[in-house]
Design goal:
mainly alpha
Length: 292
């Protein structure tokens, strides 16, 4: 925060202390003692993972609010960049007569959203270190580990492209030789048997791809931002952390979907708030689950 003299104050405090190993808990402990003792796992990089309680994600949300208030003048403009991009892309699809791709695009946004929140990880990291956040530092956060971060971002974009191709294929199978405008597509999807098949198959395929994307992306981006490690190590560590904390991460995944969907439902405008929420909270999730 700015101090009385216009300088940056280092009075920002972390929502909770950095994790330390707790005696008797093989995977460490946290502020509330919610980590639970477990037998060592044979999974790779499991020694870096702290087991957490199912309600831990709600603590990350509290940490988000603290970071958001401390750097709102940086976070809001950063989020606005992606809101404008989403509106322009949706408008472009409609003008091109590709309205049937708008719903898959919105659903696919969940697959690439983590890559868009790297700047928020950087803001939280700066606040944690007592450094003044800036829009430029958030926008150029990928330069801290460029090869791995760009590689992971491209993987997520590729995943989105694959999902969009699946969506086109499912649409073609359910609505052969059919050209629909927006209203006709909604009516067909909601009130016809072919439409219900389209929604059911699309939901199953989308959920499967989203689960894979979440497992590999839940912690890999903040991990790559914070440490100079390789892409493979980051994605495997992320997947292992998700598996070892399956219940808590299921809660966290549900909260991410809820908040992101709420932001999208408000005509993208809500993403100005929900993207910072997911970004800042994910940074604190990373701090809580992965030890240095």
């Amino acid at each position: 925060m700015l101090d009385g003299g216009g300088g940056w104050s280092h009075s920002y405090k972390k929502p909770w202390p950095q994790l330390r190993h707790a005696p008797g808990l093989p995977f460490g402990g946290n502020m509330s003692g919610s980590a639970t003792p477990s037998l060592p796992s044979p999974l790779p990089f499991a020694d870096k993972v702290t087991r957490i309680a199912t309600d831990e994600p709600f603590r990350w949300l509290a940490a988000w609010w603290r970071d958001f208030r401390a750097a709102a003048l940086v976070g809001l403009p950063y989020g606005l960049v992606f809101v404008v991009s989403g509106v322009l892309l949706t408008f472009g699809l409609e003008r091109a007569g590709l309205v049937y791709l708008i719903a898959p695009l919105i659903a696919g946004f969940m697959l690439v959203a983590p890559a868009l929140t790297v700047g928020f990880y950087a803001i939280s990291q700066d606040l944690e270190a007592g450094t003044r956040p800036s829009f430029a530092r958030a926008l150029l956060a990928w330069r801290r580990n460029p090869g791995a971060l760009i590689g992971l971002g491209l993987m997520q974009v590729l995943f989105l492209v694959v999902w969009m191709r699946f969506a086109v294929l499912i649409f073609a199978l359910c609505f052969p030789s059919t050209s629909l405008d927006t209203q006709a597509l909604l009516n067909a999807a909601l009130f016809t048997q072919d439409g219900q098949t389209f929604l059911a198959v699309g939901s199953v395929v989308g959920a499967g791809m989203a689960t894979i994307a979440f497992a590999f992306g839940a912690f890999s981006l903040p991990l790559l931002l914070d440490r100079r490690i390789g892409l493979l190590e980051a994605v495997v560590t992320s997947a292992v952390a998700v598996v070892l904390n399956a219940r808590a991460m299921a809660v966290w995944a549900g909260l991410i979907v809820l908040f992101t969907a709420a932001g999208l439902a408000l005509g993208y405008v809500g993403l100005v708030v929900t993207l910072p929420l997911v970004g800042h909270a994910t940074w604190h999730a990373y701090r809580a689950v992965l030890r240095g």
